[in-house]
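cron nightly-structures :: item 1 of 1
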Amino acid sequence: MEIEKLEIEGVWLGHSPIHSDERGYFREWFRSSDIESSMGRKLQILQSNISMSNRGVLRGIHYSLAPQGQAKWITCIAGSIWDVAVDLRATSPTFGKWIGVTLTAERGNALFISEGLGHGFISLEDNSVVSYLMTSPYSPSEEFEINPLDQELGIDWPLSERLMSQKDESAPTLRSRLAEGNLPKVT
């Protein structure tokens, strides 16, 4: 597996080879030793989630204020998504900046999002299936969201027709979360 560092500190893109034949394909999408040698850190995975979304479903921007933070290793195992990481660390030189990457089952890629960063995605086709490995479990009292259409963030979502949950649609802006003191304390 090849892992490359992206423009925001703590965001990495992984590329896994896909082995295909007449039966289908095989892909190894996570190997702890590759993460450790590329990123210089160990990942202790405490929860794994799978979501399925139809075209235009927009999920996020979500983040955790768990004391240990929450890193995510994300891949698309069916269909395609445009995945976004947002720097929510107020002391970071890239605070409020975002990176968008297309993840598809055919490309064999995955996105690593470090603690202190927000995550969201939009499904580019029906029945897109996303798998997440996370370093801390879901904790409703420590989970927060920022409106993915926040004009100050200016995320250039690739589809104009979008379907969001009521929670995401009514989520506060990044500026509001900063004023509330509800952003990650990671430096």
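cron nightly-structures :: done
The mean pLDDT is 95.
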